[in-house]
Design goal:
- The structure holds two protein chains of two kinds.
- The relative contact order of chain A is 0.14.
- The two termini of chain A are 35 Å apart.
- Chain A is globular, with a radius of gyration of 22 Å.
- Chain A folds into two domains: 208 residues, Rossmann fold (3-Layer(aba) Sandwich), CATH 3.40.50; 84 residues, no CATH class.
- Chain A is built from eleven helices and 13 strands.
- Chain A is α/β, with parallel strands linked by helices.
- Chain B is α/β, with parallel strands linked by helices.
- Chain B folds into two domains: 114 residues, no CATH class; 199 residues, no CATH class.
- Classes of the chains: A alpha/beta, B alpha/beta.
- At the A-B interface, loops of A face helix 7 and helix 14 of B.
Chain lengths: 310, 366
């Protein structure tokens, strides 16, 4: 289902319902659902080939779905940052924004100078993100981070009800990331339903809602706290890679140490065994409170182990 | 180096289009040039007017020593020089024989805008036993049915000095339009796709037709400017006459640009990269240059290859541009070319828009 042109801000959510997409024989998305609510940031996370971009393209309207339904406002009310920057390298910053505003029916000085009402102040965004001084520069001459910021600002230009951003912060420096997050937060504060994909789980933890994808399927969904709370069993930190084959399959490296997931049913036994083993060499295993990164790793491991067992 | 060679072969093997072009293009060129690259004119369409025209037309193939060279396309016993001139102007024939010219003797009119055909005809007249000269003497034995006391003469119309520039510049205008319309346009659209901005356009509040027209209108303007420049230089510098109606020429150019731009967008819609688009565009450009009659006379191309020429838009624009510029050919005799270009434009543009919709309105197209 696609919302009517012009949309309406009273909509409870935009997103996908049991969406499936195939490319040739490859299932890129399999019955994926996500609700993107106004005023909130929803993050889609997952590894390479998880289906993040495909899902965002479907919801933005750049790709048709093979099954399921998409809820989106009319094209006038969608802002979209595609995997690149979505802006023209051979136009200046000002020309790119002028083109975008013209396509969305914004006219005259307001479109050129920004401040066209509704709380969206493009002039302020350009100042805040360091692009104001580069208004007349060709976009192709800007750094990758600046181009990405311009892409996000251009996507925000029509005051969208649904703002879809495909990995807006990937590959940009920390300062630019902070600028981008400032823009994203402003969009959400302005009432937009923001859907973004990211490979950075610390960023996803800032979102109100997170969807974890793996190989086109939903691994987990909910608030970051809900996803973390849904981790069964315990996670322990050990200084080196475990020796046991079973444990190796449930271990991942993080910040110079290894973490091992112990399913709930085995948690006590495994923990005792691990503690005893590590204790023998004087380095005890330490149980940690999982964060979103741990939760996503556990979700991926569970899917992998379930697949292997099946 | 070995690693580099292996890598290149692997990449080449996967780049099917380049591979096909490397294999198909030489074969294509061999066939085209082998069968089409001929300035030898084997068939000269001829009309005969005046008393005894029907008899002369029947005897025509046996005339002028080379049997079968002249083919009578029409004979009018009651017609005179004016009718013969009209036939040449309208492109129905390359040579007109008036059995009773103004001076009482036969008159031969040759269409100089069909350069190679005219040259072949003049060579043959010159090779007659007693010669046929433009001065009307001596008496010809070559004109069939000629019982008159002398030949009124040979007149070369539309391009009396048989200048190559006269026939090349109207045709080159078409080549330039193909270049801008097809090659450059195809690059413009593929660039959007490669930069990822085509996907951005797909989700914007733009109809596919808005994007399509928005993309081609600038190229259309450039193509028109190019056309004006080429014609102005042709007329001012090379002295090529523009004898016909500017409106008729403009309409023909408009239809032709319509086809070439549509072809450019169609090529871009089936190309993933600018390199692929260039390859495809060149594959459409080359046959048009070689087979359209721009360089080699259509009648010199063997029939097995000539049919390709009749599928190519430049073939028709060349007829229109030469006809209007050199012979002041009216629209009434050019309507088949106009109709064909319009049909081709509708088909090509329709296909291009249909392909465009697949990208710009994925929900509607699939």
């Amino acid at each position: 289902m696609t919302g009517p042109a012009g949309g309406d801000r009273s909509a409870t959510w935009w997103g996908a319902e049991a969406v499936s997409v195939s490319f040739g024989g490859l299932r890129a998305l399999d019955q994926v659902s996500v609700a993107v609510r106004p005023g909130q940031v929803t993050a889609v996370v997952g590894g390479d080939g998880a289906g993040k971009t495909t899902l965002l393209r479907c919801i933005a309207g750049a790709l048709a779905v093979a099954g399921g339904a998409v809820r989106r406002p009319g094209a006038q009310r969608i802002g979209y940052l595609p995997p690149g920057t979505g802006v023209y390298d051979d136009l200046s910053v000002a020309e790119n924004l002028e083109f975008r505003s013209a396509v969305f029916g914004m006219k005259g000085a307001a479109a050129r100078e920004g401040g066209w009402g509704g709380g969206w102040e493009v002039g302020e965004y350009l100042e805040r993100t360091g692009l104001a001084a580069a208004r007349e520069r060709l976009t192709g001459q800007l750094s990758g981070g600046m181009r990405r910021k311009l892409g996000v600002i251009a996507a925000m230009l029509p005051e969208p009800e649904l703002l879809v951003l495909d990995e807006p912060t990937t590959g940009v420096d920390p300062v630019s990331r902070a600028d981008l997050w400032w823009l994203i937060a402003r969009a959400a504060a302005g009432g937009a339903a923001v859907l973004m994909s990211t490979t950075y789980l610390d960023e996803a933890a800032r979102a109100a809602h997170v969807l974890v994808l793996d190989a086109g399927r939903t691994l987990a969904e909910g608030t970051p706290a809900e996803i973390v709370a849904s981790v069964p069993g315990t996670i322990v930190v050990v200084p080196s890679r475990p020796d046991g084959e079973d444990e190796r399959r449930r271990a991942w490296r993080r910040a110079g140490t290894w973490r091992v997931w112990q399913p709930a049913s085995q948690a006590a036994k495994q923990a005792a065994s691990q503690a005893a083993e590590q204790g023998a060499v004087g380095v005890p295993a330490k149980e940690v409170t999982p964060d979103l990164q741990d939760a996503v790793c556990v979700a991926a491991l569970r899917a992998e182990l379930d697949g292997a067992d099946a | 180096m070995r690693a580099m060679i292996i890598k290149e072969f692997r990449q080449l093997r996967r780049d099917r289009r380049t591979l096909a072009m490397m294999i198909v293009m030489p074969i294509l060129l061999l066939v085209i040039l082998g069968y089409a690259a001929s300035f030898d004119v084997s068939d000269i369409p001829t009309v005969v007017a005046g008393p005894g025209a029907d008899v002369a037309a029947t005897a025509l193939p046996k005339s002028f020593q080379v049997a079968g060279t002249y083919t009578a396309t029409a004979a009018q016993t009651g017609a005179a020089t004016a009718w013969a001139r009209d036939e040449l102007r309208d492109g129905h024939a390359a040579v007109a024989i008036v059995t009773a010219g103004a001076g009482g003797g036969p008159l031969i009119l040759v269409d100089g805008s069909q350069l190679f055909t005219a040259q072949a005809a003049l060579r043959q007249f010159a090779a007659q036993p007693r010669g046929v000269r433009g001065d009307g003497s001596p008496r010809s034995q070559g004109v069939p049915g000629d019982r008159s006391p002398g030949l009124a003469g040979v007149q070369v119309l539309y391009n009396p000095q048989l200048k190559t520039s006269y026939i090349m510049i109207p045709g080159l205008a078409g080549v330039i339009l193909v270049f801008v319309g097809t090659v450059i346009t195809s690059l413009g659209v593929v660039r959007e796709r490669q930069a990822g901005t085509l996907e951005q356009l797909a989700v914007m509040p733009l109809r596919p037709v808005d994007v399509f027209l928005g993309k081609i209108v600038p190229y259309f303007a450039v193509a028109v400017a190019d056309l004006v420049i080429v014609l102005a230089v042709g007329v001012a510098v090379f002295g090529v006459p523009f004898r016909g109606s500017l409106a008729v020429f403009g309409l023909g150019a408009l239809l032709f640009v319509f086809v070439t731009l549509g072809l450019g967008v169609l090529i871009s819609s089936v190309s993933q990269t600018q390199g692929q688009a260039i390859q495809l565009a060149v594959m459409t450009l080359l046959p048009q240059v070689l087979l359209s009659g721009l360089i080699f006379p259509l009648t010199s191309i063997v029939i097995g290859v000539r049919w390709i020429a009749y599928l190519l838009p430049l073939t028709y624009f060349t007829v229109i541009s030469r006809g209007v510029m050199l012979r002041a050919e009216p629209i009434g005799s050019l309507w088949p070319q106009f109709v064909y270009l319009a049909l081709l434009g509708a088909v090509v543009t329709g296909l291009a828009i249909w392909r465009f919709r697949a990208f710009l309105a994925p929900g509607a197209a699939r």
